[in-house]
Amino acid sequence: MTDDQAFAAFDGCGLAEEIATGRITPLEAVDAAIRIIERHNPLLNAVVMERFDAARAEAKRAGAGSGLFAGVPFLAKDMNVFTADMPTTFSSRFFAKAAPRPDSEIVQRWKQAGLIILGKTSTPEFAADFVTEPSFRGPCRNPWNPDLTPGGSSGGAAAAVASGMVPLAHGTDSGGSIRVPAACCGLVGFKPSRGLTPSGPVYPELAGGLNCDHALTRSVRDTAAMLDITVGPELGGAYYIPKPAEAYRDAIRRKPVRRRIAYTATAPSGVTAMPEIVALLHRTVEVLRRQGHELIPVALPGDVDPYDAAAKLWMPPLALEIEERERALGRAARDEELEALSRYSRQVAAKMTALDYLRARQRAHDITVAMARFSESFDLLLTSTIGTLPPAIGAIDSRSDRFDHDAWQEGAYYFAPFTELFNITGQPAISLPLFQTEAGMPVGMQLIAKIGQDAELLQLAAALEADLPWRDVRPPYWS
């Protein structure tokens, strides 16, 4: 394949179909992806590790191959998962020389489905921010406007997919880290129900149960297909959720039934989205009404604000990761090897007792019960994904000696106030790139279903995609 524009126009399922029929070879697909990475990555800084030679060798062996995504180029995030021939550094200087570890369960499932991993994408240190500007490797930039953030923490994945480097890429989501970058970069970003995708075998769960691993994609069908290849129980896993009888990619072909959909522009913290985003939320309401759904304005209860409980759940695992690295190296981490937010998180975790952690778990449970009761009168909830347009590079500082926790919290959670609640509750949530602002920036709208209703949520997303097609709306840095 020599036409990179044609390559970049495919979603993952479309590219897999081209490869399966022999119209494109896996090597042609991999070579096209590498060319686009080499063209755009010097500016966007999305891909931070490469295994191009190994990927080409795998593509030559693949042929038409087997598996749902046989021969399709893919990128892993430098966080949570381990790959046998690349280290996982968590975007931290302290892990810069970490050795590779055997493939995580989800990586094995990607490979079994035929995905060819080209490298790893950028993330903020320990995926702890809503922007992707690690001191270790420098900021990742938004393909719609390189002066702005692509969001975080899966910012590298979002920039890579939005710019045409690969059709889909791995993301992790502990507080919105798939959905926020998807909103910033005009992509589909889906966080599955808690436990639906594997975390092991290294971890029983991630970020105190807040995290799910999935992908950022250009289409709902890719999101559904990625769930098909990764869903299901794992050996020793903390959750046992059997693979559903019907494939998600089949379920989305059915028209969704009429739903009662609540909507709000204000987060439990009291933060309201900026007026232009609120106006687009109301346009989404009208589209859903036209599709036959009942839309109900609501105010989220103030006692479900997730921040304090979430911080006490994700900070201790971060501290434990650093402690284990110190033990392996036989020395303490130096200040210059960790960013300010990471050092702050260690201090918070060090002061916590076991009872403090259990209180945070109990608080998370109380929030989950409160949201379940609040949601009894409706089927789904609609919010915007982010509260403001993507901030400028450097506007949110979690890294430097100027770091101030209160200022960081205010900036980060004014930008992204709507996502972390559903990591607490474990509910499936999806960001869809339904509209753009007058200035041309994408804006994500978030739909949230009840836990376990992932198929129903994806059905509704597919119907919106059909009504408001977004695949031909592309950023300046495309292919």
Automatic annotation (TrEMBL):
<dbReference type="Pfam" id="PF01425">
    <property type="entry name" value="Amidase"/>
</dbReference>
<dbReference type="InterPro" id="IPR036928">
    <property type="entry name" value="AS_sf"/>
</dbReference>
<dbReference type="InterPro" id="IPR023631">
    <property type="entry name" value="Amidase_dom"/>
</dbReference>
<protein>
    <submittedName>
        <fullName>Amidase</fullName>
    </submittedName>
</protein>
<comment type="similarity">
    <text>Belongs to the amidase family.</text>
</comment>
<feature type="domain" description="Amidase">
    <location>
        <begin position="28"/>
        <end position="458"/>
    </location>
</feature>
<dbReference type="InterPro" id="IPR000120">
    <property type="entry name" value="Amidase"/>
</dbReference>
<dbReference type="InterPro" id="IPR020556">
    <property type="entry name" value="Amidase_CS"/>
</dbReference>
